[in-house]
Amino acid sequence: SFAYITIKDRLPQILTRVIDTLHRHKNEFFEEHGEKGVEAEKRAISFLSKLRNELQTDKPVTPLEDELPDAALWNQYLDNQRNLSNGNGEPSWFQSPWLYVECYMYRRIHAALAQNPPIDNFDVFKEGKAQNFFESQEAIIALCTYFQELLKNIKDLDEKQLQEELFKLLQVSLWGNKCDLSFSAGEGSSQTSSPLKSLENMVPYIVVNDMEKLWSLLVNAKKRNTEKSKVRVDIILDNAGFELVSDLVLADFMLSSKLADEVHFHGKSIPWYVSDTTKHDFNWTIKQLQSANHMWMSRCGINWEGNLKKGVWVYHDHIFWTLPHDYSSMAEVAPDLYAELQKSDLLLFKGDLNYRKLTGDKKWEYTVPFHQALNKFHPAPLCSLRTLKSDTQVGLKPGQGEKIQASEPQWMGSGKYGVVQFDDAL
């Protein structure tokens, strides 16, 4: 399975890159913190080397020993996993649900740094995220230019034209999800060509396409919208770099076209899955755009900084997004976050990890309805924008999945196919 290859090959590669990154920053740690920095780097590397060995030799998963705020929740989750194994021994790296052990590895990477001040705030994935952003410059310029030109005439667009533009930018945001560094084990995965040119050719690869449903939801919300109630869209972010820029353009379009009155972004509170967006990445990206020496890029950055200042854009992070739990347990584990999401008119979940957590990462039959796979997670109408990079997919028509499978056995792990999959929460 794709899960097996991930644990056997990709995760050890990612750990090796993390160790290498710390090695390469040794002098920087010394310059900033003296011997203390070097000692902390050695301890972190030793911790990570041990972790890599545990993973590769299928050792039992051990409780977290740090004092971080989420440690108790993680250890409680491990106890539940032990109970699930029906006395078949301790949960181990190769004998446990993929979603759980993969999340656990990233949490242990975080612990390796968090427990070793003064390098405890160092993001081992930061360089890769920055590189993805810079290598995607041409695509970012093309997208910002297209968008700024669109804004000049946005007031004159009729409903049909607005719908067309929304669908375009939804697709750019969907395919932006291909730029995923955990998928490529940290190898470059930037978007180099203009993302708008190939959209027509990509439509056949969207195996569930509910864009019409999104459109009617937003249009109806807008019609219902009185002075008192604002239309709110929440985007649960995935990768930094090009994908994040495509999400920000989509968010700005919704505001500028008055399809939404405010957009809330949800990112990760710690470095996660190599390229996932943290608050630092979010702010850094907007600053980079602002200071770019390209007129339309910097215009985007300046406008977006303004959206944050005006409060029509809001960034949130929450500990829950970096727990191993799937979303059906959010109401119980993080009732505050669930209540926050209930305020939304539409939740857009970006990417594969969010899809796995929405559907419990199970080996569903292809035709199981999305609503059923969500297992009572219905805080508000929601939509998954995701390119497929794991063995789980629901809501297909009878025979659809089997037909693709026959010609492309690895189709669910290739990132070549995507979904815009909607559930109305009713």
TrEMBL record:
GO cellular component: nucleus
Protein name: Sugar phosphate phosphatase
Pfam families, sorted: ARMT1-like_dom
Keyword Metal-binding found: yes
Family from the record: Belongs to the damage-control phosphatase family. Sugar phosphate phosphatase III subfamily.
Top-level division of the source organism's lineage: Eukaryota
GO terms for biological process, alphabetical: DNA damage response; methylation
Gene Ontology MF annotations: metal ion binding; phosphatase activity; protein carboxyl O-methyltransferase activity
PANTHER family, alphabetized: DAMAGE-CONTROL PHOSPHATASE ARMT1
Known function: Metal-dependent phosphatase that shows phosphatase activity against several substrates, including fructose-1-phosphate and fructose-6-phosphate. Its preference for fructose-1-phosphate, a strong glycating agent that causes DNA damage rather than a canonical yeast metabolite, suggests a damage-control function in hexose phosphate metabolism. Has also been shown to have O-methyltransferase activity that methylates glutamate residues of target proteins to form gamma-glutamyl methyl ester residues. Possibly methylates PCNA, suggesting it is involved in the DNA damage response.
Annotated source species: Corythaixoides concolor (Grey go-away-bird)
Listed EC numbers: 2.1.1.-, 3.1.3.-
